[in-house]
Amino acid sequence: MNSTADKTELTGYDRRMRALMNDPRGRVLHATKGRRRAAVAASVGLTAAAVTLVARMFTYDELWAAFALLPVLLLWCLATGALNSATRGLFELRVRALDERQLLERERARSAAHMMTGALIFGAAVGLWVSTVLGDGHLTRAYVAPLLAGVFVLHWMMPLWIAGLLAQDAPADDSADDGEGPSYG
Hints:
The chain contains six helices and no strands. It is an all-alpha fold. The protein has one domain.
């Protein structure tokens, strides 16, 4: 899909983002499978903390949650940046800046994430239904907005988490790679 002629159509933004996503200085954060898993775990945990704090702010009008949210969001940005670097920008780069292999990886991660979030949304719907049947409905009204916000964030982040888990280790001689593709000597 991306031929040599297509590469000339990249904008300055596309080139800068591709260079940022392939910056070798950030590779230490995701050089091994264990580090990528740790980055995914950190992102999942920080995302859950942020959604919980936002829900507390709006559901219970607790102002302290806004102050607690700031450091959580800063750490979340670092974890998400590490994942974006680990996946070489699969979900940050525009389609025209990705090669066929990257497009396939992006689609594979989105497909797996779609199946997982579908199952989680089904579970949330069943949980709300059960709480309505067993309770008087107050639980449903109190938690429907935070639950929907959490489901939206899960739907948004799941492809990146899956891609981070599926990312492969870079070859040992990849340090000379400039993000333009493999070099054959």
